[in-house]
Write a structure and sequence with these properties.
about 240 residues; alpha/beta; TIM Barrel; eight-stranded parallel sheet; 9 helices; about 40% helix; about 15% strand
């Protein structure tokens, strides 16, 4: 049984390296987001102390106490401070709480949210890097744009100067055989490539946020640049 954070990090790193090797990619091409939604503030602090600098949370209500405990009194960009990623569906009424605390938004999927993020970012004098969420699998339980909506949506984002789309995000269905997720990840990569080729405006939309504990190796083989790892990396607790 993998019982310590050190062991989990070592296991994940080995799996990641092997996936990169199979795909002919460099380890430096892939960033890990430690998804801390199911662990305590103490475990989250420990993850940062163990070198996991990117933290992902799904809901501000759950993240607030952790953010305050870890980053609340720190100066912006202070050495040793983690980078926070908002990876869940973001309600427009939570934008004021999230923007300015979370560097990256991984769930941009509607213009009303883009407008709210842009307005808050402009008030703070910052530009927010965002991933456009695409529901590649078509599951009703998943958020995100339909693939056919992506190009028009990306075009609309050009008018928001305090928001910067940098990539695409998707969630694959949970599969007992992770290989079955490959088509979802491949489709997102192909959408990204098609988008970038369609116009010079989209050259900076290059990242792919895809792959979680069950399927991140397949996602890496298909081009993921950010993987979102929870239970396999930081575990799961009753919090």
């Amino acid at each position: 049984m993998i019982s310590t954070l050190d062991n989990r990090i070592e296991l994940v790193e080995e799996k990641l390296l092997q996936a990169c090797k199979r795909a002919g990619r460099s380890r430096e091409d892939v960033q890990i987001i430690a998804v801390t939604k199911y662990v305590s503030a103490d475990t989250t602090k420990s993850a940062v102390e163990h070198g996991l600098k990117h933290l992902g949370e799904n809901r501000w209500q759950d993240a607030q106490a952790k953010w305050q405990a870890i980053s609340g009194d720190a100066a912006p960009n202070e050495d040793g401070q983690p980078v926070w990623h908002f990876i869940g569906s973001l309600q427009t009424n939570k934008v004021k709480e999230v923007i300015g605390k979370f560097t990256y938004i991984h769930s941009l999927d509607r213009l009303s949210l883009a407008e709210a993020i842009n307005k808050r970012a402009a008030q703070l004098g910052i530009v927010v890097p965002c991933f456009i969420q695409v529901n590649v699998s078509g599951e009703d339980s998943k958020h995100g744009l339909e693939p056919g909506q992506l190009f028009d949506f990306a075009a609309e984002l050009q008018r928001f100067k305090s928001l910067k789309p940098i990539g695409l995000m998707t969630m694959a269905p949970y599969e007992s055989e992770p290989e079955r997720t490959r088509s979802v990840f491949r489709a997102l990569r192909e959408l990204r490539d098609q988008l970038r080729q369609s116009s010079p405006l989209y050259e900076e939309i290059k990242h792919l946020s895809m792959g979680m504990s069950n399927d991140f190796e397949i996602a890496i083989e298909e081009g993921a640049t950010w993987v979102r790892l929870g239970s396999i990396l930081v575990g799961k607790e009753e919090v």
